[in-house]
């Protein structure tokens, strides 16, 4: 698959790292916002480690990257974590950054767009923006890990969300024990 992975400035840089770690074998175009990079340096020991199969784009203001045009063929885009700022920009059609424009393109081309928002609590504007994105065809997978598989590490907990993202992308994975499986 050809996938855009975007990291924005919400807490949860480990979600970005674990998704990238589990997309080997796919063509990954990785875009990071300035605030996301700040959060990554704060939350990840030694910063984010980019896998060899990922092409990195650092400039979130550029429209000279392939995935901001519908003419470039991509399969899916995942925004992980998704800040409420980015959620708001996409929900209101403000395509003033690479990430927001790319998401706008994926929606208009009816391509898969997955957002993993992280905020607590949500205000009404956040909720309305997420409802608008859902109505426009995006999938919201909140960064709300589950505990019934009894993860014993933070990575294990994070992987309960990564497994859902991979499931929605149609990528086989055994990251977590599935409910009622042996
Ligand atoms: C350490 C840190 C943690 C943050 N956590 C969140 C968060 O969990 N959710 C959120 O919506 N914004 C969070 N923010 C604020 C965003 O980074 C800020 O709104 C920024 O403008 C988002 O821009 P971006 O979406 O272009 O990256 C955090 C900022 C910092 C510095």
Report on this structure.
With 182 residues, this protein is α/β, with parallel strands linked by helices. It has a single domain (2-144), classed as Flavin prenyltransferase-like (Rossmann fold, 3-Layer(aba) Sandwich). Helix content is 36%, strand content 17%. It has 6 helices and 6 strands, in the order E-H-E-H-E-E-H-H-E-H-E-H. It has helices at residues 13-21, 34-43, 84-91, 98-108, 124-135, 154-169; strands spanning 2-7, 27-32, 54-57, 76-82, 112-117, 139-140. It has a 6-stranded parallel β-sheet with strand order 3-2-1-4-5-6, sandwiched between helices. The chain starts with a strand and ends in a 13-residue tail after the last helix. The structure holds flavin mononucleotide (FMN). Flavin mononucleotide (FMN) binds next to helix 2 and helix 3.
Kindly report the average pLDDT value.
Answer: 96
DSSP E strands, number: 6
CATH class: Alpha Beta
What CATH architecture do you see?
3-Layer(aba) Sandwich
Strand content: 15-25%
Radius of gyration from the alpha-carbon trace, in angstroms:
15 Å
Count of discrete alpha- or pi-helical segments spanning 4 or more residues: 6
Overall 3D shape: globular
CATH homologous superfamily (4th level) name = Flavin prenyltransferase-like
Terminal-residue CA separation: 30 Å
Largest sheet strand order:
3-2-1-4-5-6
Helical residue percent band:
25-40%
Order of helices and strands: EHEHEEHHEHEH
What would the CATH topology be? Rossmann fold
How many domain regions?
A: 1
- Structural class comes to alpha/beta
Bound molecules: flavin mononucleotide
């Amino acid at each position: 698959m050809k996938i855009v992975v975007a990291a924005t400035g919400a807490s949860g840089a480990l979600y970005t790292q674990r998704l990238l770690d589990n997309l080997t074998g796919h063509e990954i175009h990785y875009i990071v916002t300035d605030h996301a990079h700040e959060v990554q340096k704060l939350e990840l020991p030694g910063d984010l480690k980019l896998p060899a199969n990922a092409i990195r784009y650092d400039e979130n203001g550029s429209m000279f990257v392939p995935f901001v045009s519908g003419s470039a063929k991509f399969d899916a885009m995942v925004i992980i974590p998704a800040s409420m700022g980015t959620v708001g920009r996409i929900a209101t059609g403000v395509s003033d950054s690479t990430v927001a424009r790319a998401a706008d393109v994926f929606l208009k081309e009816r391509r898969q767009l997955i957002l993993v928002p992280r905020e607590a609590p949500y205000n009404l504007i956040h909720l309305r923006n997420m409802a608008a994105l859902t109505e426009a065809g995006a999938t919201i997978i909140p960064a709300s890990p589950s505990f019934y598989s009894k993860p014993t590490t933070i990575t294990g907990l994070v992987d309960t969300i990564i497994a859902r993202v991979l499931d929605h992308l149609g990528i086989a994975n055994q990251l977590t024990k599935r409910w009622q499986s042996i």
